[in-house]
User: Which sequence fits this backbone?
């Protein structure tokens, strides 16, 4: 089967002739559209995987209280769905990201409700969906999930490309009672004053810090991220806590919660196995 390719990737089609390349490109676009449309109709093919966010306790790393879940879309390894980033790139090239994101978002909320999870679930809305309207066929399910569940909206670096649209989206999320979770954008904060200003305006409830890269411990990016969290009174959440050394680093910077393989791997066995974990 043809796999989705990343933008800018050189893909060999076995011939350098323009006609052959054009045909291959058209075939790839056609298959990409078919695949994304299938996922919009059946987002359960992407999971979700749910990974626990735990209260940090260096003495009992894997036994810390679960305080939230991170929802991620992942396809089965070895299939066309395995490369999620390439899948999103293909959807973006066809203008289908918003529809795909809404379908998966509502599916996650339905899955969490069915599992009976009481902790907040963290989602990452794609920037293309900011201030967008939920598709009518999903509106009832989305409204139910929005009312009944606690949700955190993760904001990543690409969200700052349009600060005014981001601000409107965050106002909407907060109106729904959602938390704002700022991903580790320390490098962008240190390098771009405009990103610094936009990040302050998000006034996140939670700031994530990636503790898996020790060379950043004393970097300007790490300092900028910690200063922002302190300024707005956000909780610190360590991410990529995969080893005991990462856990030690997380505790050292004052993180109170964390996510990573040491604290629990993403789980696809929903709904029954997760409930009551």
Assistant:
């Amino acid at each position: 089967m043809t796999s989705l390719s990343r933008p800018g990737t050189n893909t060999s089609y076995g011939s350098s002739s323009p006609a052959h390349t054009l045909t291959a490109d058209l075939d790839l676009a056609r298959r990409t559209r078919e695949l994304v449309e299938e996922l919009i109709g059946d987002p359960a093919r992407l999971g979700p995987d749910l990974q626990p966010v735990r209260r940090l306790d260096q003495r009992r790393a894997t036994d810390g209280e679960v305080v939230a879940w991170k929802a991620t879309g992942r396809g089965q390894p070895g299939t066309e769905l395995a490369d999620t980033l390439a899948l999103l790139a293909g959807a973006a090239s066809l203008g289908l990201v918003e529809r795909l994101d809404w379908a998966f978002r509502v599916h996650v909320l339905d899955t969490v409700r069915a599992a009976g999870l009481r902790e907040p679930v963290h989602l990452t809305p794609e920037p293309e969906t900011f201030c967008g309207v939920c598709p009518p066929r999903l509106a009832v399910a989305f409204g139910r999930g929005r009312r009944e569940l606690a949700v955190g909206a993760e904001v990543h670096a690409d969200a700052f490309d349009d600060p005014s649209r981001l601000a409107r989206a965050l106002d909407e999320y907060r109106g729904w009672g959602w938390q704002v979770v700022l991903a580790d954008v320390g490098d962008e904060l240190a390098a771009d004053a405009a990103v610094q200003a936009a990040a302050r305006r998000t006034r996140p409830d939670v700031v994530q810090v990636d503790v898996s890269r020790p060379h950043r411990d004393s970097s300007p990016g790490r300092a900028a991220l910690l200063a922002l969290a302190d300024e707005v009174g956000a909780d610190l959440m360590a991410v990529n806590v995969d080893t005991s050394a990462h856990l030690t680093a997380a505790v050292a910077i004052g993180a109170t919660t964390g996510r990573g393989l040491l604290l629990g791997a993403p789980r696809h066995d929903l709904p029954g196995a997760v409930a009551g974990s």
